[in-house]
Amino acid sequence: MTTKKRVLSGMQPSGLLHLGNLMGALDNWRKLQDQYECFYFIADWHALTTNYADTSKIRTFVHEMVMDWLAAGLDPEKSVLFQQSLVPEHAVLHLLLSMSTPLPWLERVPTYKEKMDQFQDRDMNTYGFLGYPVLQAADILIYKANFVPVGTDQLPHLELTREIGRRFNQFYGQVFPEPQPLMTEYPKLPGTDGRKMSKSYGNCLYLSESPESITKKVMAMVTDPARVRRQDPGNPDVCPLFALDRIFAPKEWCDHVNVECRRAGIGCVDDKKELLKHLLAYLKPMQDRRKELVGDPKRISEIIQEGSKKARLIAAQTLAQANEAMKL
Ligand code: SF4
Question: CA 105, CA 108: separation in Å to the nearest integer?
Fold first, then answer.
């Protein structure tokens, strides 16, 4: 029996993962594995809340994402890696929690309206979409997670989970502890066009992308827009490429660029070449691991199945407690 505190986090399966996903979540998940008992799940039911009309790629997306997880260093020996839809207890707890969750709590979730506006191409006026914070609460509460890694923008979601759990406890007795945020502020990662790296902008550098393709994209990447010619001084503070330098290149190089760019002592091509050297070296071990996994699809399925079995054992215990508390 482990005495480590428990961490829970999930990711919607959306296919290949990019550097933004790596720096924004995976890299942190990997580090947490040694300190906590980590449960990381493939949030395939959550993916349905926005993509219910076309599920044709979901299995491929799950498979690709788990390959990226493993390549990035998530270890099924240390963490429980599982698929939400293979643990139906989440859905039952979601149903139970939905009984006592007031509707206005869901309607006031900041991302509810934002996403409604974002997905104008589809009908988001669905029961599943409105209720996704309740499913999220069930995902967390069913493992009695002590911590959930969040950035400041996700704090309201976690607070809602805590409120939903508190309300259940008030009606039926103490079942759910309150999960605490594990505050993690991530470096903002710009894409190749300078906007936030995101699949919907088509500006991503993927973890599994070939070195040739990454090189091509980085060499064409947007830099300080005011620096038109080589002899123009640039400003690293507004340059998206420099944001990548800061993450992947050594400090000495960043210090050098920070001085030389401002007096046109270095060209963007030089900086890009140096960044590539470090970025590709950083990605290489992950890409090597991933190549091994590509040849062994059965292994991926086994890892998901085994992890989901482990998760179910815990989820079933909590659900039994919730049923008992509700006198069901
Ligand atoms: S030298 Fe580097 S930091 Fe300066 S504008 Fe070019 S890419 Fe950006």
Answer: 6
Q: Is 241 in the pocket of ligand 1 (CB under 6 A)?
A: yes
Question: Collapsing DSSP states into helix, strand and coil, what is residue 164?
Answer: helix
pLDDT at residue 21 in the model: 92
Tell me if the pTM is above 0.70.
yes
CA 256 to ligand 1 centroid distance, Å: 11
pLDDT, the chain, mean: 94
21 class by beta-carbon count within 10 Å (0-12 exposed, 13-18 middle, 19+ buried): buried
Among the atoms of ligand 1, which is closest to the Cα of residue 258? 3
Q: Is 221 in the pocket of ligand 1 (CB under 6 A)?
A: no
From 268, 273, 274, 276, the mutation candidate for ligand 1 (largest count of ligand atoms within 8 A of CB) is: 268
Please give the distance, rounded to the nearest whole angstrom, from the Cα atom of residue 55 to the centre of ligand 1.
42
**Distances from the Cα of 215 to the Cαs of 11, 35, 282, in angstroms?**
28, 36, 14
Q: Whose CA is nearest to atom 7 of ligand 1?
A: 268
- In the numeric block, the tokens 């219910």 are attached to 52
Nearest alpha-carbon partner for 300 in 90, 60, 40, 85: 60
What is the reported pLDDT for 3?
A: 84
Give dist(CA 90, CA 41) in Å, integer: 12
Cβ(59)–Cβ(285) under 8 Å?
no
In the reported structure, the alpha carbon of residue 223 is separated from the centroid of ligand 1 by a whole-number distance in angstroms of: 6
Pocket flag, ligand 1, residue 194 (CB < 6 Å)? no
Ligand 1 pocket mutation pick from 232, 238, 245, 261 by most atoms within 8 angstroms of CB? 261
SS3 assignment, position 301:
helix
Query: What pLDDT, on the 0 to 100 scale, is given for residue 1?
Result: 56
Dihedral sign of CA atoms 274, 21, 198, 285 in order: positive
pLDDT the model gives residue 274: 98
